[in-house]
Amino acid sequence: MRLLVSVATAAEASAALAGGADLIDAKDPLAGALGPVSAEALREIHAAVGAARPLSAALGDAADESAIECAAREFTAAGAAVVKVGFAGIDSAGRIERLIAAAVRGARAGCAGVVAVGYADADRAASLAPTVLIGVATRSGALGVLLDTENKLGPGLRALVDPRALAAWVSEAHESGLLVALAGKLTADDLTVVRLAGADIAGVRGAACDGGRTGHVTAERVRRLAGIVAGACLTATA
Q: How does DSSP classify residue 36?
């Protein structure tokens, strides 16, 4: 399992790198669960990360095919190897499939991939159930899926999904050939559960920050999380 840390600035990206994050993710925590940073901020983050780590970027919740295709093209041109797209407010599988396919077209222009985001609090987000999203993502050419939470003031992933149900969801996505990431107010104590569920990636923001999700990423906090992930992986392979 790899540790992904979401950052809003180049300075935070440098801190995440210094702390040992495996993946760097560009996201504006003040703009919602999948708030995109500006294209300029993404270029600065990419300059700070360089080739040291893969870089992903949140595009927000899609609503229009043309707009999400353009956003995917712009963000991959600015350095993102993967873009993440959510679908809050949309519960039509067919419409989401078309939106993902549009994002895939835009991302492929930059030789990048798309991760489709499902919400564990899908009822509140008025979005597609995560179990249905797996098939939709597979059919539309997505690289992977992420299970997150839309309401960052509400309960986290661990409180919303039973560990066995989480493992079953991850297994089903893997059987469909998808990369699988889990996020949603994950704490240091949650990382072992995420690993046991079989996820490829654990995504964090608040746990890596002084001052919570809207605070600032620090190398010290990332180092602690990276140590937990590395220790868990070593134990699993011993």
A: P
